[in-house]
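To whoever is on call:

I kicked off a structure prediction for a single chain this morning and the downstream step that reads the tokens threw a length-mismatch warning. I double-checked the sequence; it's 222 residues and nothing unusual in it as far as I can see. Pasting both halves so you can look.
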Amino acid sequence: MIRVVIAESVHLFRSGLVALLEDEPDITVAGTVERGSGLSEAGRALPEVALIGTDLADVDGVTAMGLLHAAAPQCAAIIMAARRRPGDLRRAVTGGALGFVLKDTSPAELVDAIRRVARGERVIDAELAFAEIGAARNPLTPRELDVLEAMADGATVDEIAEQLYLSAGTVRNYLARVMHKIGARTRVEAVTLARQRGWLWRDGDEAGGLDDSGRSRHPLGR
């Protein structure tokens, strides 16, 4: 019997998965959670496979997978995405996922994916795999990504400088280089493009903490 845990924030979708899997003679649902943090507890049920949505209530799917593996390293993970984005696949595989499927995949394909992953096989959406092959390579350095990520979270230039032990002028230079490399006209556009291409790990508000002009929404931002 394959023991499965489900991490999904949408109650109706989560309930539908439970109903689908409980009808299978060789699969049982060992637990369900709506928040990624709940996977630490769910891992104690010794699941063999975890179905994890990309957009949970508290963390993204890849972060949630890390919490699960810390509690249940033997559990294989399948990430369920709402849309095809090459960067999501790269993050999931790098994070240790054996499977990556779309939420609109057919019930039969999902059940087959669970069985295959339980055997140690990899199951990846074919169209997304081809899109990943053709995806643009990340031109940003780790430090440039750090600066852009902090800006996306709403930090001001001065706050980023303090967090990363840089001068404000150096932070502005990093942001200018990022925009030039990506081909973005504003910081908002740079954040959006980086997220679409899978170069930023967190996926919240498309403009993060920036307004439409690319400035921080922080009252002291500059």
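Update from on-call: the warning came from a stale cache, not from the record. Cleared it. Sanity check on the structure: The radius of gyration is 19 Å.
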